[in-house]
Amino acid sequence: MIKKLLFSNLLLLVAVSAFSQGLKVTSLRCDGRNNPDGIATIKPALSWNIESEGYNTMQSAYRILVADDSLMLQKGQCDIWDSEKVNSGTTLNVTYNGKSLQSAKKYYWRVMVWDNKGNASAWSNIARWQMGLLTIADWKNAQWIAYQAMSDSMQILPHLPVKDEKKHSPGADILPLLRKSFNISKPVKNATMFISGLGHFEMNLNGQKVGDHFLDAGWVNYQKEALYISFDLTNQLKQGENAIGVLLGNGMYFTPSGRYRKLTVAYGYPKMICRLQVQYADGTTQDMVSDASWKTTADPITFSAIYGGEDYDATKEQAGWDSPGFNDNSWKNALIVDGPPQLNPLAAEPVKIFDVFESKKITQPKPGVWVYDLGQNASGIPQISVKGKRGDTIKITPAELLTADGTANQNATGKWHYYTYVLKGDGVETWQPRFTYYGFRYLQVDGGVPQGDPNPNSKPQIVALKGLHTRNAAAQVGEFNCSNELFNKTNTLIGWAIKSNMVSLLTDCPHRERLGWLEQDNLVSNSLQYNYNLESMFKKVVSDMRLAQTENGLIPEIAPEFTVFDGGFRDSPEWGSTAIILPWQVYQWYDDKQVLFDSYSMMQRYVEYLEKLSDHHILTEGLGDWFDIGPKKPGVSQLTPMGITATAYYYYDLGILAKVAHVMGKDADAVTYDKRAVEVRKAFNDKFFDKATKQYGTGSQTANAISVYMGLVEPDDKAAVVENIVKDVRAHNNGLTAGDIGYRYLLKVLDDEGRSDVICDMNNRSDVPGYGYQLAKGATALTESWQALPSVSNNHFMLGHIMEWFYEGLAGIRPAEGAVAYNKIVIRPQPVGDVTWAKASYQSAYGLISSDWKKQDKTFELNINIPANTTALVYLPVDMTSKITMNDKPVSGVYYNDKGVMIAVGSGVYHFKTVK
Fold first, then answer.
1. What is the pTM of this model?
2. CB neighbour class for 69 (10 Å; exposed up to 12, middle 13-18, buried from 19)
3. Please, what sign has the CA dihedral across residues 211, 215, 220, 222?
4. pLDDT tens across 864-895, in order?
5. What is the DSSP track for 90-109?
6. What's the CA gap between 843 and 849, in Å, rounded?
7. Following CA atoms 853, 854, 855, 856 in sequence, which dihedral angle do they give, to the nearest 10 degrees?
8. Of all helices (H) and strands (E), which one includes residue 896?
C-alpha cells in the first residue's frame, strides 16, 4: 500500500531545487536502434531520453519533426511529419504517424520536449533511419545466384528421426567468388546495397571489404526466410568503373562432410541476392541487381564448415578479382537458383571482431607441435602471420583445454575442428578464417616454427599468432564492481561466457553445438540485459520461436530448429515456455507492446499445447532441472521430480499470458487464463506439497524455490517453505544443488525474502562446486557444469544467474512492482558478508541508473542516479536510531519497514549518508 501511495503521489520528502536545469533530448532511437538501416515496418517506433541537471524532471509534452532531407530539419522545417505539440510523458516507442514511408528511402528526425516545470528543451541532434525493401517488387527483379545448384533429392532438411531411415552425406561443395563490374557516370547523392548471402557472405567494393561485420547475416529458419544487410556505399563508389566482389560461406545452410559436425543440413549450396540502389545528385536513379550476368569461380577457401573449420590455399588467389579492370573471361556466368520465400532485414546487431589476444605462453609438447596459450577462453578465430615457401602448409587446432600430454583437447567440444593455410610464398602472409569460429584458449600449430626458434628443416616461420574474439555488437549497458574479489572474478567469468555465446542468437556454447537452446534465454535474460542492450536480439529470438512452432503448438527446445531432436530434448516446458516469458520480458525491459501483439497467437497456442499434454493439469515431460548436482554425472534432473518444474512453468505461463491479455485489452482472455491458473495451482499443491513437512516433492532446493517464486505456495505456508530452503542449503555445507532451471529461482527467493546472507555464504567460496570452484580449477569462462568437468563444455553461460543478484541484490538496482522499462525503480542495496562496498550502473531505456554504496563501522553512504521521467524508492539498510542526510541535508518524514528506511525520490543525483 505504501509503495502504491508513494508512486502515485510522489513528493520528494526533502526539499531540493525544483528548477529544471539543462533540459535536453538525447539518444534518439528508431525501433530500438540508433540510426538504423533496414526498417521493415511502415509505422516505426520512435524513442528518446531526456536529461536534466535538476530534480524531479518529468516530460509533459513532445514534438517530433520528420523530413526526407536533413537540411530541411536544420532550418526548422519538415515535409514528412510534424506531430505538433503532444501533451504526453511518453518517451518510448511513439508510433510514427506521418506520410506513407517508401522502401529504401532515408528519413531524418529530431525531437524537442517540455517538462513538468514548463521548461522547453532545444531541438535534439538530428537522427535518421533508412527503410528496408518492403515488398518482393522492391528487389527490382534481383535473383538468387550461385556457382552450383543443388537438386531437390540432395537436400537434407531438419526432420523428425525416421526408423531405418537411410541417411546420405551432404558431401562437399565449392565455395564461390562472385563479381560484377558497373559504371558510375554522375555525382552520387546516396547509394545503398541490400544483400543477402547464404549461409554467410562478405562483400568487397573496389578491392576493399565493406563494413566490419563477421558471419553476416545471421542464422534463421532457411525454409521460411533469409536475412539481408543494408550497406551505405555513398562515399565508396567512384566515378567510372566499379567492381563488387562477394565471397560466400556455408554456415548453418550447408554442413559439408569430412570433419566434425553436430548436425547435418543441406538447404542448398551457397547463394546470393542483392540490389544496389544509386541515387544521383540530379534526381535520377540506377539499380544494379544480381542476375545471370554476374561472373563466378571457385574461392581459394577450399573447405569451410561452421562445425569443422576452414582451409585456405593462397596459391589459388587471383589478384584484383574484386577490383575494376580484372579480366574475368575465364570465369563462368552465375546460375539462377531458388532461395527462401521471404527476405527480411537483420534487425539485431551484427557480429564483429572485438578483443585481440596474444600468446601468454608458448610450449612444445611434441616435436613439430607448438601450443600457444592466449590466457582467455573465448569465442573467435585465429589470425596467423607466417612466412615460408610456396606450397608450405600450416595447420591450426583450437581448444579450450589441453590433454595430459599438453596438446589440444577437443574431446568435449567437437572433434575435429581445425584450419589449414597453404602459403603462396610471398613474404609475411597474414590470414584468418572468414566463415567459421570456435571457442578456445589454446592454439596448436603443426607445420611451422615460432620465429626465432631453431628451424633446421626450414619450416614456415610463425611471425605472430593471435586470437580474435568475435561476438554480437550489442551495446554494453551495465557495469558491476564490489569489494569482494571473488564476486568480481565470478562476474568476469560469466561475462566471458555471455560474450562468447552472442552471435545472431544466444548459443549454448561456441563450439560443440552452437544451437539456440531456449531455457537460458528466459533464465539468464535479466543477467544478460543488465549488461547488454538485447532488445533487437531478443525480438529476433522471439521471431525464431514463432517460425519454429509446430502445427500442434509445440515450441522446440532450440530455435531455429536446425536439427530435430526427439523425446525430452525437443519437448520440455522449461525450455518451450520461453515463448511466453521472453516476449513479456522484452515488454517489461523496453516497453515494446508490439512484440506482445506479434507473439500472442504463439503464446496462446503453446499453453493450449501444454494443457493437452497434461494429465489433469500436471506435466511430467522434459529434462527438468538440467545439470543439478546429484549422485550421478550431470544431465537430466536427479533431485527434483520432473513434474514440479514443468507444471510450475505451466502455471507461470498462464499468469503471464493473463497479464499480456490485459495489456492488449483482451480482458475476457485474461479471465480465462487466470481461472485455469487457479486449477493448475490446486492440482500442483495436491500432488506435490506435503502439508506436514512443508516441502514440495523431494524437498530439493529447486522444488521448494520454484514453488515459492512462481506463486504456487499458499501465503500461510510460505515462511516455512523458505525456511526449508535455507535449511537445505545449510545442510549441504552452504552448498548448492540446484541446476540450470532451479538455481535462478533459488537466488530470487532468497533475495526477495531478505536472505542474501545465504546467497553470499553459498558463493563466497571455492571449495564446493560453484563459481569459485570453477575459478579454482582454472576456468576463465563459465563452464557447463558446476564442477568444471573437462568432459563437458567449458564455455557455457546457462548457469550465470548470480549476475542478476550482483545488480539487484548487492548493488540494489531493480524495477519496482508494476514497472515497465524501469520507469519505477527500487534502490535496495544489501550489504552482506564481507562486502564493504558495491557499485553498479545500468543504462535503462529511460537513461542511466546507478547505485554506489560503502559501509564503515557506524556509517553507510549511498550515491545514486535516477534518470529523468522516472521515480524511485530508496531503501537504506539502517534502523530508526540512525541519523540520515540526503545531499548533506537532514531527512525527515521517512518510512521504516523490515527492509530499512524508505525514501521516495524523483530524478536526480543523490548522496545519502547514515550515522548510527
1. 0.95
2. middle
3. positive
4. 999 999 999 999 998 777 899 999 999 876 77
5. --S-EEP-SSPP-TT-EEEE
6. 6
7. -160
8. strand 895-897
